[in-house]
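Summary: Need help interpreting a holo structure output

Steps to reproduce:
1. Submit the protein chain below together with the SMILES for zinc ion.
2. Request a joint structure prediction with the ligand placed.
3. Inspect the structure token block that comes back.

Expected: a single structure record containing both the chain and the bound molecule.
Actual: see attached output.

Input attached:
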Amino acid sequence: MVSQLASMVESYISDSRKKYAPQAIPLTDAQRSTMQPFFSAPILDSARLCVLRGTRVSNPSMYAMAKMMGIRNLPDFAAMTAITFVDVIVSHQEFTDALLFHELVHVAQYAQMDMKEFAARFVNGFIQGGSYEEVPLEKMAHALESRFSQNASETFSVEDEVRQWRAEKI
Ligand SMILES: [Zn+2]
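--- attached output ---
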């Protein structure tokens, strides 16, 4: 069941990425210089941003099936501030530095684990934790985002953090 859900999440990520990529644009120079101490050039080069106006991200079509399986607390993507599909960050509001930082952590996570692993970790984390907020990938993004927000002059490498986290969690 978990692997079936994970492969559906994977298709959702891949389809959404394809859907939003054409309207997504690179980081501005200002955004880039703020994020540059924390992320490597390949991450900042590959990331694309898309701010939706008058429309919202739709939930995966697999939700109907997940609900039938008795899975509750499914995250409502339409209600989220932003969602990252591999390297395409789709936001329902203008990007603040904290929001951009958080989503770039997800880009860095995807860069180190292919879509399949990301989806599997997401589904497993969700089922074990019982909510979106408890998914380890999400908790990590929140923790690093608060480190950045509390003191942006104390720099660190997000990719090193992801690498270390992944080595410990496997
Ligand atoms: Zn997140």
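--- end attachment ---

Reviewer comment: Strands lie at 48-51, 82-85, 88-91. The pocket of zinc ion is lined by residues 102, 106, 138, 141 (CB under 6 Å).
Status: needs-info
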